[in-house]
C-alpha cells in the first residue's frame, strides 16, 4: 500500500507554476493601477471635504453671530510656513495678535476660531508643516501631496468673507474659488457670492 501511494503523490510542474505566476502578475498589473487611482481620488475628495466643511463653518458662524467671518487660504506658492493651508477667522479679530478666550466664539491669535470638534485653532495644513503652532494644531499628514493651487483673487493668498445674511464676499468681485490639486487631478470649489452655495467641479 505504501508503494501505491508514492506513484500518486505528485507536485506541480514548473510549467504549471509559471502559468500561475503569470496569471497573478497580469491580475496585479490591472488591479494595482486602479487601486492607486482610487486612493488618489479618495485623498483629493477628503481634502475637498475639509475645505467645504471649513467654508460651511465660517458661513454658519457669520449667520449665528450676525457679523463677518472668513476663510483664508494660502497656495503652495505662498513662500512661508503658511503655504498650502487654510483657516477660519473671526473678522473682528483678524488683525489682532492676542487670543480672546472670552469672545463668542473664543478665538486664538489673529482671530483664528477654534475647530468645533478638536477645539484647536481651525487651521488645516495640507503639508503638516505649520511650525508656528506646534502643539496647538494637530499635524496633518493624511492629505500630504494635496496642494492648493488657486485662491480667491488669484494671488498666493485669498479670503472669502461670509456675512450675516449668508452671502459671500463681493458679488461683483473676482471668482470665489479655491482650487486643489493632487497628482494632476483638480477640484475647483466655488462659493456663490449671493447665496453662499458651495459647488465642486
Which key features would you list for this structure?
201 residues, minor pseudopilin epsh fold, 4-stranded antiparallel sheet, 2 helices
Written account of the structure:
The chain is of the alpha+beta class and 201 residues long. It has a single domain (12-200), classed as minor pseudopilin epsh fold (3-Layer(bab) Sandwich). The chain has 2 helices and 8 strands. The protein has helices at 2-8, 14-65, and strands at residues 69-74, 85-90, 123-125, 147-150, 157-162, 177-182, 185-191, 198-200. The strands form 2 sheets. A 4-stranded antiparallel beta sheet has the order 3-2-1-5, covered by helices on one side. A 4-stranded antiparallel beta sheet has the order 4-6-7-8, covered by helices on one side. Strand 7 and strand 8 (198-200) form a beta hairpin. The protein is elongated, with a radius of gyration of 25 Å. The mean pLDDT is 85.
